[in-house]
Design a protein that fits this description.
The protein is mostly helical and 642 residues long. It folds into four domains: 190 residues, no CATH class; 155 residues; 134 residues, no CATH class; 113 residues, Exocyst complex component Exo70 (Monooxygenase, Up-down Bundle). It is built from 28 helices and two strands. Strands 1-2 form a two-stranded antiparallel sheet. Helix 8 runs antiparallel to helix 11 and helix 18 packs parallel to helix 22. The longest helix is centred in the middle third of the chain and has 33 residues. The termini are far apart. The relative contact order is 0.05.
Length: 642
């Protein structure tokens, strides 16, 4: 590196002049040699007038360039040592660049002559002196313009507007108040564009003079420090797997949110702004341009994408899927900019790292979903939910699926090419009946409906734990009703599964409820005679006794059963009452007249038709009624819980 000071020191240390410039300008082609003004005979007779004129003109150009270049020799005076051309006078800066160009052209011609002029040595020394000065100027502009050339300012400036500004600057309008496309610019913008224009002018000159590597080295060191500093302030840091493992869920969620915000700024501002600047400054060399940007950003890009990669490698728990989906969405949203910024062959590694991360995040989400399905299928807990209420597994799964539905757009991308198991009967049964056009069904809808079906199959198995068949069907009705309600309460989940799915499963809820009624109340209903059946007083008395026993038994059991949903609970009570009360009312009205003279009639006819409705209202609250063994101890209505 030809400049060794830090941006803050303000002191420039330059190495000795570079040697061997003649090799950069020697023209070995026949065309170059034939362009000289020597004839075959001139090698013996001396120079021709045309050759003398050519050499004289080139030597004069060298002398003119020498006057400009030596004027700004840092070692010539204390003034030139601490003064910078582009800072002092942009007009003189342009004259200096023009002098270097003239010098380079003169050297090109002289080195092509058969008998080079002695001026060539002077020219080579001047070129080395000029390059030292331009390196110093280049470094000074980069250092002094750190604030004006921050990536955010550069990335926010449209390329079309900037390019027009650069053209106007190149035409010498730098000292005028500029107006671009009808819009005036701020002093900060003006300073930024002037700095970019000057850097490009110097880079163009040094590259064409064979000093591109030296120029690029200065640029890389200063600009890399700016990018690294920017990433540091964004909170981008290298984590270790152990750090991730030790974080609780809240801390990890905070880190994910912080990373997503930082990544957006890093890609769209830091990296993109640096690419715009780098492409502009080194427009003269595709190789240098790509190499510089690669060296400046490779470490930062690797660090940026390392956090999500570590998260993918950690233990896969179901709750972590939401953070992974958010990361997938963030990386996916940034992919167009990532692909555009890291578009060259040298920077393709960063682009491939981002693409690989996107694929890994998708795989991780799908893996967690698969594990979650297995968790449902393998659930072997023998929990007997009191009263046939909603099972904890049902609550857990539906809460999870409701949350997943809120990420439906992300899941559509992740699950697009990953259908549920092909060997399942899912498509032939539940889903096909509710989704007539299966081919147009989003993949996320298929997966969520499949997980619900897996849950329902598991609930069928858990219902077998109940010894009472009626309670088993009440359990199924409770749980399926809970599932349908969760779907209806979640706009996203309802949209994904569809109205037909909801209607289909509500039919099943009613079927379970109907089956419960039949199994739980058949004994009570069968204790009453059919309408057309006539009986004696003794038969009527026996019928009342059977009814009392059957109703007490049903009541005793079902007061401890539970239906959590109020509407379902009320619907069941109304349905039972409609089947039981009218039948009992008819029997009661018909045979009570025959029994009016009976002693202890209140023990024989324990319930009036009105009592039945009141007792039925006590069902499904999960409040068990404790009764003594004797049927006569059945509590009066006033003693029962409301």
């Amino acid at each position: 590196m030809l400049v060794s000071e830090t941006p803050k020191s303000g002191i420039t240390t330059l190495p000795p002049p570079r040697r061997g410039m003649s090799s950069l300008f020697f023209m070995s082609s026949n065309k170059s040699l034939s362009s000289s003004h020597y004839s075959h005979s001139s090698s013996f007779a001396g120079t021709t007038p045309s050759r003398t004129f050519s050499l004289s003109m080139m030597e004069e150009n060298i002398e003119n360039a020498e006057a400009v270049i030596t004027k700004w020799d840092p070692s010539s005076s204390s003034y030139t040592k601490v003064t910078f051309i582009f800072q002092q006078s942009r007009k003189e800066a342009k004259e200096y660049l023009k002098a270097v160009k003239t010098l380079r052209s003169a050297m090109h011609v002289l080195l092509g002559e058969r008998f080079p002029s002695s001026k060539i040595v002077i020219a080579q020394n001047l070129m080395q002196l000029a390059m030292k000065r331009l390196e110093k100027e280049f470094y000074q502009i980069l250092s002094a313009s750190r604030d004006q050339l921050d990536p955010e300012s550069v990335s926010n400036r449209s390329s079309s507007r900037s390019s027009k500004f650069y053209d106007e600057e190149a035409e010498g309008r730098s000292d005028d108040e500029l107006d671009i496309a009808g819009e005036s610019i701020t002093e900060v913008e003006r300073a930024s564009v002037l700095a970019m224009s000057d850097l490009k002018s110097i880079a163009d000159c040094m590259i064409s003079s064979g000093y591109g590597k030296e120029c690029a080295k200065i640029y890389r060191i200063i600009r890399k420090s700016i990018i690294d500093e920017g990433l540091y302030h964004l909170g981008i840091q290298r984590f270790k797997s152990s750090h991730i493992q030790k974080m609780d869920s809240q801390a990890l969620d905070n880190e994910i949110k912080k990373w997503m915000k930082a990544a957006k700024i890093a890609v769209k501002t830091l990296f993109q702004g640096e690419k715009i600047l780098c492409d502009h400054v080194f427009a003269a060399s595709e190789t240098i341009k790509e190499s510089c940007f690669y060296e400046i950003t490779k470490e930062g890009a690797t660090t940026l994408f390392s956090f999500p990669e570590l998260l993918v490698k950690t233990k896969k728990v179901s709750e972590r899927i939401f953070g992974l989906m958010e990361l997938h969405e963030a990386v996916s949203d940034l992919w167009p900019e990532t692909e555009a910024v890291f578009c060259s062959e040298s920077t393709s590694g960063s682009k491939l790292q981002a693409l690989s991360l996107l694929l890994k995040l998708g795989d991780s989400v799908r893996s967690i979903l698969s594990d979650f399905e297995s968790t449902i299928q393998k659930d072997s807990t023998k929990i007997l939910v009191p009263g046939g209420g909603v099972h904890p597994l049902t609550q857990k799964v539906m809460n999870y699926l409701t949350s997943l539905a809120d990420y439906s757009i992300i899941l559509c991308d992740i699950l697009a090419d990953y259908p549920p198991p092909a060997n399942s009967s899912f498509h032939e049964t539940s889903f096909k009946s509710s989704m007539p056009d299966e081919g147009s069904t989003p993949a996320v809808s298929v997966h969520l409906a499949w997980l619900i079906l897996v849950l329902l199959c598991k609930l069928d198995i858990k219902a077998e734990i109940y010894k009472d068949v009626g309670l088993a069907y009440l359990f199924l009705a409770n749980n399926l009703h809970f599932i349908v309600e969760k779907v209806q309460q979640s706009p996203n989940l309802k949209l994904l599964l569809g109205e037909e799915w909801v209607a289909e499963h509500m039919k099943k809820v009613k079927l379970y409820a109907s089956t419960y009624e039949i199994t739980a109340w058949t004994k009570v209903l069968s204790s009453l005679p059919e309408k057309s059946f006539e009986m004696s007083t003794e038969m009527a008395k026996e019928c009342f006794r059977r009814f009392n026993i059957a109703f007490e038994e049903a009541y005793r059991k079902q007061t401890s059963w539970i239906v959590q949903d109020r509407k379902l609970r009320d619907d069941l009570k109304v349905s039972i009452a409609q089947k039981l009360v009218p039948t009992y009312q008819e029997f009661y009205d018909t045979y009570m007249v025959m029994l009016t003279e009976e002693k202890n009639l209140e023990l024989l006819v324990r319930f009036s038709p009105d009592d039945l409705g009141n007792y039925l209202s006590d069902l499904f609250h999960g409040t068990s009624i404790s009764l003594s063994p004797t049927s006569s101890s059945f509590p009066p209505r006033s003693c029962l819980p409301l």
